[in-house]
Amino acid sequence: MVPQRICTQIVDENKSFNKDIPQFMRQVNLADAGFNYHVVAVLGSQSTGKSTLLNQLFGTTFDVMDAGKRQQTTKGIWLSKAQESPILVMDVEGTDGRERGDDQDFERKSALFSIATSEVIIVNMWEHQVGLYQGSNMVLLKTVLEVHLQLFHAKKERSLLQFVIRDYIGTTSMENLSETIKTDLMNVWSSLAKPPGLESSKITDFFDLGFTGLPHKILCSEAFDTAVDSLRTRFANNDAPDYVFDPSYHKRIPADGFSLYTREIWETIENNKDLDLPTQQQLLAQYRCDEIIAEAMEPFTKACNILQSEFLPGNICENLPIRMQEMFDQVMKDYDRQAKRYNNAIYEKKKQELLRSVDTSLYVFFQAQLNALQKELVSSFMKTAENFPCNRPFKELAAKEIEKSKTRMQEEAQSLMIANIDWDSKQFLLKLSEELESSCNSVCKQKLSSKITEMRTTLETRVAESLEIALQKPNLKVWDGLLDELLTNQKQATDEITRLFPLFMDSTEPELNQSYIHDFKKDSWIAFRKKVALEMSDVLLQQRLRMFFEETFRYDSDGMPKLFKKSGTLDRDYRDSVTKTLELIQVLSCIKYSDGRIPELGIDVKEIDSSFSTPTEFLTILNRKRVSSTSVNLKRTADLIYLDCKRSLVSTQTRIPPYFWALLLVLGWNELMAVLRNPFFFMLLVLGGSLLYILYATGMIGPARVIANRAAAGVVDYVTDKVTDSYEDRTNMQRESSFSRENSSEKTSIDGELEKAALS
Ligand SMILES: Nc1nc2c(ncn2[C@@H]2O[C@H](COP(=O)(O)OP(=O)(O)OP(=O)(O)O)[C@@H](O)[C@H]2O)c(=O)[nH]1
Predict the structure, then answer these.
(1) Which residue has the higher pLDDT, 577 or 653?
(2) Transmembrane stretches, by residue range (predicted)?
């Protein structure tokens, strides 16, 4: 695209700087030119054809004076770009202008500005002005040299003073003219007050001098054009042997900083402050680097926001390392592309600032990724650890898994690392390590605890079963077997805990093992006692005591039911049984061996309940009050059983005595003989006897007796009913008879007869 041929007023006649220069730079396509551009300024007396020269030389469009009016056209400083070269051209208001009168301020300031910003300064003068020391040109040159010394003495920056002699007619050779100008310059130079250390310096230490003569534009227009074309080549063609833009002239201001730099320079000049160009350049570098950082950070921040929105908390972002690296590379590239051209120290310093910002932004992702990974690794470790085979040392397997997880974390941290940014992954590794250790310990504890719980449940089930069986038929040595079983099981379990402990826990912690054993004992004792208390509830205890009493009282040592024939035996057995049962209550009241020994609990009972002060208190199931009430109840139950037995004994004893049967035989001997001798009665007797024998032989004597008893009872009931009915009838009739007697004697006799009949 051909850039527009535009020119703009960089400093206006009121000395205000134009704020639209950045826009101008973009319009002329120089904003991104870096160092690949040049600046030329023209100085000279008013109306000496400066604008005309620039327009023809560079193809610019600066205003040119109307020949008829001869008044100043260029006011302030104008800026344009050469049509075919990356050259910025400044057309400076002419010196010695009558419009400003004696005000030399702007002249000096514009010269200062031109020299501070331009590589080549074209000094435009008529030929007839050369050698006129008192003329305005020398004043101008003095000003130029003065300000150059002021600005660049420290850095010894060089510039080219390109003298263009206008209306050069050729009568005086260019060599002579240039010598004259040089002499004038040296005179001016020697008259200048120089800074310390530069007293003996020469003008050529700071300036290169160039001289060109241009013929009269109007009178010798062709020659003028040819000379201008030749001069243009020196500006435009960098291969030309007399190319004007020596690299040492460049002010090293990147094109994107040109507007800012020139503005700062002008404001400093305008405010009459000391113009310290190195400082200005540093300030520019700082300012521009900040701007470049802000520009570079804009897409970077956007990319961060996008990444953040995709980064679900707690999740691992698969391509994070690549994306982070891309983002980092891009932002650094954006910064380097522009900022590298500025002051190196500032560039490096600002680069560190940018790195810190980028570091802070990216570290959030680094941190989030490693935290998410840590969570995942811990959770996966827990799952794996849960399924470790039980027959292999848990700790060893866990240590291998932990090592694997740590390596994974290290690898991830490494992949996220970015060159020039030093992130410390040690803290994440340490945290992961701690988390895994703690998870491992918790799984170990959980596994060991579940194994212990399993063992305790088995023990409790076994002992509870034995307890139920033993207490169903209690005896005076009931606790011996139960305690032996409990302690044997406890021993087996604690041995197993000791065996398992090093598989799950750090074997250098024997106290921990002891605490597991201790807890196991405590829990198993508590469970045992609880079960005993349950089995000794009032109802169950009474039932079991009654059973024990009955067993002792009603059955003999072979388990056969006793048949009490004598009252004395009954009483003695009753007393024995009651004594034994009461003794059993005493035995049951406290869990201890039959020889009175208290079992070794292996724990402090105060841990179970602070109200227990001795093992006996813990092992006591029935307190004195319950023993007493249980004994009273037992006594009552036993009394009832005793009475029942006594009753049955009395009924047995009140049967027909044997001597009665002998008496009956003696007295009824004749009747018996009569029956035996009578064939009918004899046959009846034989039949009856045979029937009885058959019933006895077939075992039907019992049922037959029951039937007989029932039949007899039926008969008795029937007879009783009949008698009762008859008695009631008779009573009713008596009532009616007495009522009739009061009314009629005749009726009385009838009633009397009826009554007799009824009585009969
Ligand atoms: N004699 C002579 N006149 C010229 C030459 N070039 C231009 N002029 C005339 O000089 C007059 C001033 O030209 P400008 O180019 O406006 O001069 P200037 O130095 O830019 O003027 P200011 O910007 O007002 O200081 C115009 O009328 C031109 O025609 C030249 O080479 N010789």
Answers:
(1) 577
(2) 680-701
Bridge partners of 208, per DSSP, are 160
Instruction: List the domain range (segments joined by +) for residue 254.
Output: 7-275
Residues 6+ apart with CB under 8 A from 230: none
Burial label for 754, CB within 10 Å (0-12, 13-18, 19+), is middle
- Are residue 678 and residue 715 in the same domain, yes or no? no
In the structure encoding, which two tokens stand for residue 741, read together? 């007697």
Residue 409's φ and ψ, nearest 5 degrees, are -65, -40
65 CB less than 6 Å from ligand 1?
yes
Q: Respond yes or no on whether ipTM tops 0.90.
A: yes
Question: Do 472 and 408 fall into the same domain?
Answer: no
* 653-679 pLDDT per residue, tens: 556 677 888 888 888 888 888 888 888
Cβ–ligand 1 distance for 129 under 6 Å, the answer no
Task: Determine how many CB atoms are found less than 10 A away from the CB of residue 358.
Answer: 24
Ligand 1 probe mutation, 7, 9, 47, 56, most atoms within 8 A of CB:
47
Question: Does residue 47 have its Cβ closer than 6 Å to ligand 1?
Answer: yes
Listed residues 210, 243, 275: the one ending a domain: 275
Count structural domains, the chain. 5
pTM above 0.80, yes or no: no
Q: Annotate 246-297 with DSSP letters as a single string.
A: -GGG-----GGGHHHHHHHHHHHHHTT----HHHHHHHHHHHHHHHHHHHHH
DSSP conformation letters of 647-659:
HHHHHHHTSPPHH
**130: nearest Cα among 162, 92, 166, 160:** 166
